[in-house]
Each structure stands twice: as C-alpha cells, then as structure tokens.
C-alpha cells in the first residue's frame, strides 16, 4: 500500500514560500474580500517534482493502488512495487487549486512502477533482466552447458574443491571467460523482464559494434549488404548522407555494423585416448605336427598405450591440441604358435579306425525296406565329431543326392570311404587328411530319419562290408 507523506520540513525552498504566504494572509485578504475563506489544499509531489494541488486526496490513494494492481495483473510472475514517492504538502490558500482528477491523472502517469529483477552483467554491461536470482544462475549455467556437459561441469566444480577423478576419458581442467559474468538485484520496468530461454538467446546473439567499410569499384548497396550482412535500410540509417540511388565511388567509407559476441568461453580439457599395441606372433616349427597343422601355446594379447592430449576450444570450436603424455599402460603378449613340418600321409595304412566318437551301430549293411543298405549307420555318439577312418585325400566334400552333406576319401591304396548325412563339413576337395582328422559333424541331412552317420567302404570300386574292417 502507498504511504502518502505530509511533510513541510522536506523542502526548504517551499517553506520559504509557505512563510511568505503565512506572513501576509490577513493583509491581502482585507484588501480583496473580507468574507473570503482560506482553503486547505494538498500540493502533490512525485519524488521531488511538483505535479499539482488537490482539495481532496481521497481518490489518490485508490488510484495509486489500482495502478500497482493493474501492473501485477499484466505481469503475474513478477514482484511489482511502486518505485516513486508521492508526497502531499498542505497549505492554506485563497486560490482555487487544479481540478483533482487532472492532478490524479498526472500523478498516475508520472508514477514509476517497477519489478524486482536480477540484471545479468557481462563485464560492465547489463544484457538481460530476469525475475529471480535462480533464473539468473540458470541462464549463466546454461550458457556454460553449451560448451561442457553437466557431468563435466560437476567434475570441474569438484576439482576446484579438491576432488579429482583420474579415471575419466576426458576432464575439463579450466573454463575461462573473456569477461566477468554476474547478476545483481535491481528494480526495472516489468516490460523489460524476459524468461530464461529468451535471456540465453539474447546472450548468444551478441551485439553489434560500428565499423567502417571502404567501397570498391562499381560496388552497389546490394553488394555491400551481401558482404557485410547489413540490410540496405540499416545502411541508409547509418549513412544519412547517401540514399538508395547514390552511386558509390571507390574508396567511399561507409558506416556498418559488425556482430560481436558478448562473451567468449574457452574450455581446456585433458583427454585420454587408448591406442592398441598389436601383439607379435612367434612361430615354432614342430616335427610332431603335420604340415598345415597349427597349435597355439600362448594366445597373444594386444597391449595398450594411453596418450594424453591437452585440447582447447573457443566457443565450442577446437583451436589447439597437443600431446602432453604418451605411456604404455599394458605390454602386448606375444602369441606363440607351433607349425607342423611332418609330411601328411596321403596313402592309407589299410587299417580303419572307428569314424565316430563312440556310438553304436543302429543299422547294418544289407537289404532294408526292399532295397540295399550300402553301409552301416552309427548313432548316439558321445560327441558329434566325425573323423577320417584312415589316411587319404578328400575326393569329394559337398552335397550328394540323398546323402545330404557328405565326404568321400580316397585312401590311395584301392580303398575309399564315404561319410554321409553330415550336419556340416570341415574339409574340402583335394585336402590331404591323416587318420583321425576331423572331417565334419554328425547330422541328419539328405534322406535321413534321425541324427546318425552313414559309413561305407569301397575296395577297388566294389562295395565292402565295413564291419569286416572296423571295430567299435
């Protein structure tokens, strides 16, 4: 609520005038009109400026409060207060004062109503007004978060307090601002208040400074607009001595505006990058292994180098990167392999091994279901690995009609063996395979009623009974 001050003691100049009036009232009134009555009027001042005189101040208080309430309604999120002092000074006088309504209207017009605000200062320049200190802090933080992550900012603040975490892939070591950024409490016209998002946009857009552009041969205002990004209408405002029909001579100096940022933000980081160190392979020749056969005694493992960089960004743009440290975090482990040198026998021994890992004979050679079953079937093994029954050369490895995936091995001594219905193949045609070499995995491909191995032996082109050559 407004407080109307009645004060005769605050204005020394006015007291002098008041004293004059009081010294001569009787004398003056005796000459003019002995029946005239003096009236009490209220001289109204807004701050130190005289506005007018009232015979009745009752309507003034309500009008003042109404203006404040109207402003609060227009700006519901702002804290609104009167920023002017209204003072009433009484005086006894004969003259008729101004009409009260006119004086009140002028008081309301001159009355300053302000909002509590926080002014965001960049250097010595105020750039935006927001409603609260929390909003101002959010604006400043949001500007920083355009160039660092929330986590980086928290870690940076932690580092400043002595909490350093060396396990991160990168960390902010410094944030440098080209100007100080702070906020201060002020009272402003509520129309100047903006929200956090708008304040961020204002700061990001920056401002403009005047500069001089020197024209070149045959350049037009349109050319200069394209070059300087200053619109023609603005060029004419900045250079009132020319118009849109002026022919510009080479060397003419024109005032233009150049955009500049309110604030430059430099972010320095320490970045840790891992680089693999390839492991070496040591090969040992082994006479106990067949040619083409390899065994790994020690599995290789890559090492790791940690390279530390110092990076500098200005307003989010990289401007510098230097290596500050390069160290081996873990050494590479050399892989040790043995390679066979033993000649692979391509000729069979004539003695055949059981081609499966265990299992039993589920069907023998002979007539079955009205047709000849050419070999034996082995089912229910311990594992499904199928191996060569004797040394030899793979004659065929692929899909056979009715046999599904199959392998035929020529043992180069008149014998051939067939392995059918495999789930997958582990050898290829032309490959030399010693006895016991894995050639595939038991399956149920082709014409098959279940997972099993169909095994055949041929001698000099004629079908032979496998049970005469192998034992489980």
What would you note in describing this structure?
- The model is unreliable at 1-35 (pLDDT under 50).
- This protein is an alpha+beta fold.
- 20% of the residues lie in helices and 43% in strands.
- The protein is built from nine helices and 30 strands.
- Keywords: Signal.
- Residues 1-30 form the signal peptide.
- It holds the Pfam family Peptidase_M23.
- Residues 263-343 form the G5 domain.
Key descriptive features of the protein:
disordered N terminus, 9 helices, eleven-stranded antiparallel β-sheet, 472 residues, elongated, four-stranded mixed β-sheet, Membrane-bound Lytic Murein Transglycosylase D, Chain A
Short note summarizing the structure:
With 472 residues, the chain is an alpha+beta fold. The protein contains 9 helices and 30 strands.
The CATH H-level homologous superfamily of the largest domain:
Glucose Permease (Domain IIA)
How confident is the prediction overall: mean pLDDT?
86
Which structural class best describes the helix and strand composition? alpha+beta
Strand fraction? 35-45%
The tally of beta strands, per DSSP, is 30
> Any idea of the CATH class of the largest domain?
Mainly Beta
Count of the separate structural domains = 5
Oligomeric organization of the protein chains: single chain
